[in-house]
Model the fold of this input.
Amino acid sequence: MLCILPFWGLPAYGNENVQWSGFGSLAVVTADSDELGYRRDYSLTSEVFDGQWSFEHHSNLGVQVDWHINSQWDVTAQLLYRSQRDINLDTLTNLAFLRYAPDSRWRFRAGRLPFDLFLMTEYRDIGFAHSFAKVPSELYGIIPHRHIDGIDAEYHTNIAMNTLSVKAFYGETKELVSAANTQSGRDFKLDDVWGLAIDLKSFEWELGLNHTRTRIDNQVAQPLIEGNIALSQIPFLNAAWPDAVSDALRLNLDNESISFTSFGGQYHFPAITLQGEIAHMQSTTETVNDLNSGYLAAIYNYGSHQFTASVSHAATDRDESLLEGIDVGTLSLSPDALGLYIGADFLHDFYNINQNTLSVGWRWNFNDTTALKVQWDRSRIYGSGSSLWQPPVETRSGPRSTGTVNALFVEVSWVF
Done:
């Protein structure tokens, strides 16, 4: 915002160097499960169960202003409403950066920038820009952070008939994150976000490689660590949970690191587009489990219509031996000790995704700026469950549910 403020009060009306644009989606979703409540990603504190219809999860409205100061400098600001819990300038500001392009090869930006994690990072929330009524949750739902506050540098060059871009970025970011057994959330901050994004494209195809490494700034596990140190000083409780301190330290989040790598691409045949991405996430904390995910989609173009089909998958590599062999009955003799165990189990299950989804959809561009999209998802939740799905309030202290869920999405998207 500091980059934008010096220019914010200048008149835009009648200035040909200032361009206003916008986008939006009016989308409704419903599901058919009483045990597994749908939510878009980890930032949502609400869910959609059988018989419910929600406009909250995928409806949004955005407006963007681009000011081309001269051939080398420009400013971009974008406000986006997408059902944020707190509505203020900070949460609504999706982009706000100053860009400097000394020549056709180099670009430098500072401010609030897109977080380059995926193939569709730049337009994941612009429904009109892609074919899906809902992008695959197995990849795009696992990290709710949309932007970083920082800097980036990008280099462009041509290789034969192809365009290569290499971007490096640094910054920090935070986003509301809600666990799957609560309807409350708290800010999840990431510091020292270092990243590299490489993109190679031609008219017919595109390949993208993204790698990010960051440090977690979150002390949610600190009360557990301190409580388990105290618990270890009580002989009969220490005997019931001999690894209490080491278990708590393994669940610590503060100053732990996460690395995320994704590789994706698309190829345009005359009538069909194939698109896919795979990703791997690794961390040094047992609260954020290692993850492998991806999807493959086919898009058939027929006049003003598109027909889509995709399969997606996500599975975490969770250490199931953590918190095993604990005498919960003895811990129950002390409400504080039992509370510590419940807290540890909560963190251990916080980021646990095991699901496959089959999707089919239809898009109709009924004019140049508006599209109707319909999509059906059939998700299978297996193993130890998936924390992308909310359980009912009355079962949030029990085991996570598994099974199959059908979800229907209907969306009208537009640009202006």
Residues 1-14 have pLDDT under 50 and may be disordered. Residues 241 and 326 are 5 Å apart (CA to CA). DSSP finds eight helices and 17 strands in the chain. The radius of gyration is 23 Å.
